[in-house]
């Protein structure tokens, strides 16, 4: 939804103080009775349609993935899945490409909020750290042990425990989708039902985006010796996804390396992330997603070096995957 700065600030601020983005009732959200609209379309506004049944707040939906080479928690059994990128998250951007975060303080389960203040509106409001039960325990009352096992295998964090990472992703991002807003669950809402719903939805998008296989199909596989070009990676993923994703890199900048010394290419050189952009028809949970180019709003489509042969797609550290 494209909001004016004033309107967006008002909605985000109100969301931080309550369990509802729009202050709506928990009654009468039977989506089977509603016409679903495509997010970011002219009909996807809360004064036109039911925001529980069409995504009106975070209409540009990003399913994001990591290629990490270690976790830092291998000794605890937290390892990466073999020959598979891991899920980073499911993010709601505004239709103009901007975004907000931590929209509902009543659903703040992140033990280390990052950033630790709201950035939109720029009020400097502190996001309090959470010190209650870890978010993985929220799944037990629903009997979702299979979901938890899948998350521990494919939604893996580097540098923090998996539950801390999941809590960060839920608190920062899930609370800023209109279709995960608490009133949407009705008067019989069971505590943490929305958490289970978000985790299930994030994984359903992830399952339809097999980045490792798509790159392998184009003979792009992890190697500590072979180098690749950004254009080849973009082509391989665009051909399979149906739109241009954002490609993220880390590591040294190309013009800080021996190969790039003296060039103007200051892109990073180690392949590490892919962000797949979508518009969605109706509820995000329904998965009726339409791929859109990462360039839809004219922004950057990569942080990687553009020089041919400048990128590494590194193998995982021994003992870091299973």
From TrEMBL:
Q: Which UniProt keywords apply?
A: Disulfide bond, Endonuclease, Hydrolase, Nuclease
Q: Write down the superkingdom of origin.
A: Eukaryota
Q: Name one GO biological process term.
A: RNA catabolic process
Any single GO molecular-function term of the entry would be:
ribonuclease T2 activity
Q: Which GO CC annotations does the UniProt entry carry?
A: extracellular region
Instruction: Please report a single Pfam family linked to this protein.
Output: Ribonuclease_T2
EC numbers on record: 4.6.1.19
Spell out the InterPro entries in the cross-references: Ribonuclease_T2_eukaryotic (IPR033697), RNase_T2-like (IPR001568), RNase_T2-like_sf (IPR036430), RNase_T2_His_AS_1 (IPR018188), RNase_T2_His_AS_2 (IPR033130)
- The top EC class is lyase
Record has S-adenosyl-L-methionine as a keyword: no
Please name the catalytic residues of this protein: 88, 169, 173
- Protein family: Belongs to the RNase T2 family.
The record's annotation in PANTHER family points to:
RIBONUCLEASE T2
State the name under which the record lists this protein: ribonuclease T2
Q: Which organism is it from?
A: Coleophoma cylindrospora
């Amino acid at each position: 939804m494209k909001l004016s700065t004033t309107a967006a600030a008002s909605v985000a601020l109100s969301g931080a103080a309550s369990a509802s983005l729009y202050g709506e009732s928990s009654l009468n959200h039977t989506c089977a009775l509603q016409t679903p609209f495509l997010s970011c379309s002219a009909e996807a506004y809360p004064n036109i349609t039911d925001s529980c049944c069409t995504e009106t707040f975070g209409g540009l939906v990003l399913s994001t993935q990591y290629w990490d080479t270690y976790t830092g928690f291998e000794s605890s059994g937290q390892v990466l899945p073999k020959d598979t990128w891991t899920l980073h998250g499911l993010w709601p951007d505004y239709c103009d490409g901007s975004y907000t975060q931590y929209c509902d303080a009543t659903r703040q389960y992140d033990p280390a909020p990052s950033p630790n203040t709201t950035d939109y509106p720029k009020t400097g409001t502190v996001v309090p750290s959470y010190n209650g039960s870890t978010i993985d325990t929220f799944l037990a009352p629903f009997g979702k042990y299979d979901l938890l096992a899948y998350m521990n295998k494919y939604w893996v964090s580097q540098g923090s425990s998996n539950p801390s990472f999941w809590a960060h992703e839920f608190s920062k991002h899930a609370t800023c989708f209109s279709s995960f807003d608490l009133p949407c669950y009705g008067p019989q809402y069971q505590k943490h039902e929305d958490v289970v719903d978000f985790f299930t939805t994030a994984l359903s998008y992830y399952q339809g985006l097999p980045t490792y296989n798509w790159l392998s199909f184009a003979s792009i596989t992890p190697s500590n010796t072979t180098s690749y070009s950004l254009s080849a990676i973009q082509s391989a993923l665009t051909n399979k996804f149906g739109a241009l994703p954002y490609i993220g890199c880390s590591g040294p900048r190309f013009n800080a390396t021996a190969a790039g010394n003296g060039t103007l290419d200051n892109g990073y050189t180690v392949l590490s992330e892919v962000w797949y952009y979508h518009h969605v028809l109706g509820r995000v949970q329904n998965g009726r997603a339409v791929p859109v180019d990462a360039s839809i709003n004219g922004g950057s489509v990569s942080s990687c070096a553009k020089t041919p042969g400048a990128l590494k797609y590194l193998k995982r550290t021994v003992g870091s995957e299973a």
